[in-house]
């Protein structure tokens, strides 16, 4: 049996993302076949295609999440929600028809340290992912979907796990003043909710303009500031009543210096992205004189994933959907994702007739 899929055929522009008819994969030992009803886009989908993690012709000869060469063609997509339709050896048939979201990576890391293992393999990078009608994945990495809607459930796994772990990594506590850069994106909008509604902090959301204010306040932000302001740092001081305790950042270079300046003594800066640029200048005196703590953060643990899904299921966290596209418009979806000024996630619908169930 064959299925529709989009494959990245090499490093480059959108011409490297090609629609193809390919064989439906067969589940192996301890695996299940999942019929995909929704796949949310992430920056990693685009960076993998563009060689943002390195290319096989670079000096480091590394690419993909594992820093090894990508095996092209590769089906991208890491945020997947769907239904188990076939089980492999070692998997109970009781798993059939389960409606699931996929934990996005595999590793040999011990419990609580899965995300820090050197052998992480990421769906949509080292494994074929969600830009298709079906995908194979380990049965024990398929979790019950948190919501009755596939589209909103697909918005949770990667962005939600990333945001949850960043909040935990920064040791955010009740009443901390937390500045969130990129607050309207997939990670930022979820981090705003997690930090404020789950951990009880005071969130200052950094957004494009004042038109986002009401939406961000609904998500749990106490105040907003606009990154287009000529007095951004002063604006932060004003709404925070001084320095902030924590900065959560997925933006990178554009706001790095401002973020460090906004932090008070002993402040915590946690990063998990670099959408505006991966290289920045830093005055080390700012770091050591203020006793700043800088944390790198990627993914999270299976226990954190379960906690995240519970918070979503309980209604404490509400995934935001900006726009939906049929799988046939995957190129247009990536173009929209990269260029648009959006609030929330962009989602592909590989099997459109069932995505709402």
From TrEMBL:
Pfam families the record matches: ADH_N, ADH_zinc_N
GO MF, one example: NADPH binding
Q: Which SMART domains match?
A: PKS_ER (SM00829)
* Keyword Oxidoreductase attached: yes
Which InterPro entries does the UniProt record give?
Answer: ADH-like_C (IPR013149), ADH-like_N (IPR013154), ER (IPR020843), GroES-like_sf (IPR011032), NAD(P)-bd_dom_sf (IPR036291)
Q: Keywords assigned by UniProt? A: NADP, Oxidoreductase
Highest taxon above the source species: Bacteria
Q: Where is the Enoyl reductase (ER) domain?
A: 12-348
Protein known as: NADPH:quinone reductase-like Zn-dependent oxidoreductase
Organism, as annotated: Geomicrobium halophilum
């Amino acid at each position: 049996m064959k299925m529709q899929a989009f494959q990245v055929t090499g490093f480059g522009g959108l011409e490297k993302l090609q629609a193809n008819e390919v064989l439906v994969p067969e589940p192996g030992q301890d695996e299940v076949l999942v019929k995909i009803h929704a796949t949310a886009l992430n920056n990693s989908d685009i960076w993998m295609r563009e060689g943002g993690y390195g290319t096989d012709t670079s000096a480091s000869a590394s690419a993909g999440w594992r820093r090894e060469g990508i095996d092209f063609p590769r089906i991208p997509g890491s945020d997947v929600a769907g239904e188990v339709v076939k089980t492999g050896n070692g998997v109970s048939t009781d798993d059939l028809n389960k409606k699931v979201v996929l934990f996005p990576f595999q590793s040999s890391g011990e419990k609580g340290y899965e995300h820090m293992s050197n052998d992480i393999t990421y769906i949509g990078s080292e494994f074929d992912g969600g830009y298709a009608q079906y995908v194979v994945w380990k049965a024990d990495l398929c979790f019950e979907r948190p919501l009755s809607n596939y589209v909103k459930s697909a918005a949770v796994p990667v962005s939600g796990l990333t945001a949850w772990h960043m909040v935990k990594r920064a040791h955010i506590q009740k009443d901390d003043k937390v500045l969130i850069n990129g607050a309207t994106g997939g990670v930022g909008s979820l981090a705003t909710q997690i930090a404020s509604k789950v951990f009880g902090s005071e969130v200052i959301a950094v957004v494009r303009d004042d038109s986002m204010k009401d939406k961000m306040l609904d998500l749990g932000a106490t105040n907003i500031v606009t990154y287009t302001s000529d007095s951004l740092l002063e604006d932060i001081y004003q709404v925070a009543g001084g320095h902030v305790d924590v900065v959560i950042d997925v933006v990178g270079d554009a706001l790095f210096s401002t973020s460090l300046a906004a932090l008070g003594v002993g402040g915590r800066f946690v990063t998990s992205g670099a959408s505006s640029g991966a290289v920045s200048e830093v005055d080390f005196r700012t770091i050591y004189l203020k006793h700043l703590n800088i944390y790198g953060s990627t993914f999270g643990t299976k226990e954190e994933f379960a906690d995240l899904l519970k918070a979503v299921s309980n209604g404490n966290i509400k995934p935001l959907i900006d726009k939906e596209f049929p799988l046939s418009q995957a190129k247009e979806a990536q173009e929209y994702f990269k260029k648009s000024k959006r609030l929330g996630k962009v989602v592909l619908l590989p099997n459109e007739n069932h995505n709402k169930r």
